[in-house]
Amino acid sequence: MELGLSLASASPPAGGLAQPPPLAPPGKEQQVAGVGILLQISMLVLSFVLGHVLRRHRFYYLPEASASLLIGLVVGGLANISNTETNTRTWFNFHEEFFFLFLLPPIIFQSGFSLSPKPFFANFGAIVTFAILGTFIASVVTGVLVYLGGLTFLMYKLPLVECLMFGALISATDPVTVLSIFQELGSDVNLYALVFGESVLNDAMAISLYRTMSSVRSHAAAGENFFMMILQFLETFVGSMSSGVGVGFISALLFKYAGLDVDNLQNLECCLFVLFPYFSYMLAEGLGLSGIVSILFTGMVMKHYTYSNLSDNSQRFVSAFFHLLSSLAETFVFIYMGFDIAMEEHSWSHVGFIFFSIIFIVVARAVNVFSCAYLVNMSRPEHRRIPLKHQKALWFSGLRGAMAFALALQSVHELPEGHGKTIFTTTTAIVVLTVLLIGGSTGTMLEALDVVGDESPSIENYEDNNGYMPPTYEEGTSSGGGLRMKLKQFHKSTTSFTALDKNYLTPFFTSQTDDDDDDDFSGQPQSRRVRFYDQ
């Protein structure tokens, strides 16, 4: 040490800035990094093993997501009271950039890639209604209620724009627990498609809404009217969707005409397929759009068109690869989130804000689900309407997860210190409450609603109509007013898209035959239920 100090004083660096002495001996930082990575891998292994044991014994009171979050909370709590906090925190600090650039893209892509096209398009109108209109309703209702709560001194007062930002970020749902129980016990295929489809598009919608409100706030929105705000949101969402769809179509044409589906080029084929999703994500981010929206639609297009242009071995590889990558990322996110919750500094001085926010998001979710279900049922015949028990299951499945947490952490840097900390602490409390408590009661609740173990009475009808089940309308149902007719026309447009896809898009972008279309229904809801009942 003395030698190091004498050398530093004898030869000052250029510019007169003294270099600080090394904080640790050579190799010490690598050792600390190795220990941190070892701890992360150990928690991943523990989480996967614990999740397998819980599934095997059908113990639904502690789902996998809850177990992963709990492991992170426990380890983070132990690190918080130990002397290794500084070193450990270096490797476990929840960076939203790392989350949005590396962890979230494979999860979102797999969501779009694993969508079963036939039940998805059969319920396309309902899914879009819940995900787009419903998320907007939930965001506005939550934001307005929080703002009114501040005006009436029920809770900590925030400006209206910041309340709407909070409403947008807290509207991002993560029903991973509900979906896992659906997969284990089996459920109505239409209910699964609604829950899964809404959750996939909901994340993209919530991010777009949050970024729009954040941009409005940063540009001192007093000079911007409501129309400009809506236009900015549409520009972000539609632009991102177009970018993702365009990249997906380009990949389909490349794999169709490049002749890569031969044995000695399978490695190149798989590499290119894996790179396209990240290309879509980074392209949208580089254009100032939403990479999440872009990669979601890229996944949907690549599964529907590009996937059939791959060789059989490459199809098996990319399906297994993205499923593996998504499982690792999702489990790591919940561990990462639990650890950071235990290590972060929270602002617990506004307990009233947390309490009333929980009540407000429950109310907003109910307004979202039941109002959108009413609109959907207006346009459907009797046998195709969403039953009340399915509406209650949709309401209950609105758990909050990693997306809300990441956006709340981002708000800490964008909002004034007290406001950002309050929103972050509130979101943290809501995530822990919904994932651990509500997630643990999901199995019991779904069984009480009698929505698990259902056999869909209309699954067979998918194949009778080329895999799609557009609603049929009786003569007497057309007298429900102008709104009812417009809703029916919207649902009928799904049939038009189905015909366009079958007659023009699929032949142009793929080389598959009509027989290949039957394989598309080997999606999550049906295949996993069949595996369960075959046991």
From TrEMBL:
Cation/H+ exchanger transmembrane domain boundaries: 47-447
Tagged with keyword Transmembrane helix: yes
Entry keywords, A to Z: Antiport, Ion transport, Membrane, Potassium, Potassium transport, Sodium, Sodium transport, Transmembrane, Transmembrane helix, Transport
Ranges for region Disordered: 1-27, 509-535
Transmembrane segments: 34-54, 121-148, 230-255, 275-297, 317-339, 351-373, 393-410, 422-439
Enzymatic reactions: Na(+)(in) + H(+)(out) = Na(+)(out) + H(+)(in); K(+)(in) + H(+)(out) = K(+)(out) + H(+)(in)
Low complexity bias (residue ranges): 1-18
GO biological process, one term: regulation of intracellular pH
Membrane topology per record: Multi-pass membrane protein
Primary location group: membrane
Subcellular location, record wording: Membrane
UniProt GO molecular function: potassium:proton antiporter activity; sodium:proton antiporter activity
Short name of any one Pfam family annotated for the protein: Na_H_Exchanger
GO cellular component, one term: plasma membrane
PANTHER family, sorted: SODIUM/HYDROGEN EXCHANGER (PTHR10110), SODIUM_HYDROGEN EXCHANGER 5-RELATED (PTHR10110:SF127)
Family: Belongs to the monovalent cation:proton antiporter 1 (CPA1) transporter (TC 2.A.36) family.
NCBIfam families in the cross-refs: b_cpa1
Name used for this protein in its record: Sodium/hydrogen exchanger
Organism listed in the record: Panicum miliaceum
